[in-house]
Amino acid sequence: MSERHLASERVGQFFVETDSGRDRLEYTEYGTGDKWVVLLPGLLMPRRMHDHLARTLASAGAHVVTLDFLGHGRSDQPDDPFGYSVSSFARQVVALLDELGAAQAVVGGTSLGANVALEVAAIAPDRVRGLILEMPVLDNALEVAIVAFAPLLLGARVFPFAFSGIRFLSRRVPRGVVPWWLGIGLDTVDHKPGPLASYVHGLFFGRVAPPRAERRRITAPALVVGHPRDLLHPASDAAMVADELPNATLVTATSILEWRRKPERLDLVTTKFVLDSWRPARRARRTGA
């Protein structure tokens, strides 16, 4: 997969007030203009996981921003469980829009990022022009999520030296000499054990996504991308949320790898969705009495 770099790419930062103090968040902008798109990463992953899609959308005329939530990538990683939740991440997205002076944006994300996008639409519906929801984690993923992440919380608390060792080794690998997705994986395990345990603790005991009744009230157009044969992100969750949202379109990927290995089809669908979301609404024709 070839990578395009736009001359207008730039990194920015802003600050949010949390229970642990004043924390710094970092983001990257691609392109210019008023057709804002915010892309949000998956669990513990850095914002650069969306570099390719951001450049694709920017080359089509969108103004794209990728964000590292608190605890992700190059943003601050406080050791405080109250700083980490889907609700707090959603408020960080709204704060980003305020920082950029963006009245509205198409908000999208992968896995955790999809859940946060739904939460933004629930708490600030007037700020959301559209939603891109890739493999949301909802009701049907509960048991697998507990089995997958409870050991992460326990291990970071009981065996912090092991996680510090993994972090030490990951930092010894220059990102420029390894395949791009391997570099994303190395960034994903680059977490101090204290903040990592706080992160998982906060997500476990916070609100994971808007409940069904709230999801049914989200009227923004939505593009939902589901994957077959994915236990943590079951296709049934994608189909469920697509059925709940009144203006949703469901697209089924061939696998979780399609958007990573052969992204052309999903890039095309997503680009069309973003541009359509920013087209002015048609006025209803007047009819004679």
UniProtKB/TrEMBL annotation:
It holds the Pfam family Abhydrolase_1. Residues 36-142 form the AB hydrolase-1 domain. The keyword Hydrolase applies. GO terms for molecular function: hydrolase activity. The keyword Hydrolase applies. Keywords: Hydrolase. This is Alpha/beta fold hydrolase. The lineage of its organism: Bacteria, Bacillati, Actinomycetota, Actinomycetes, Propionibacteriales.
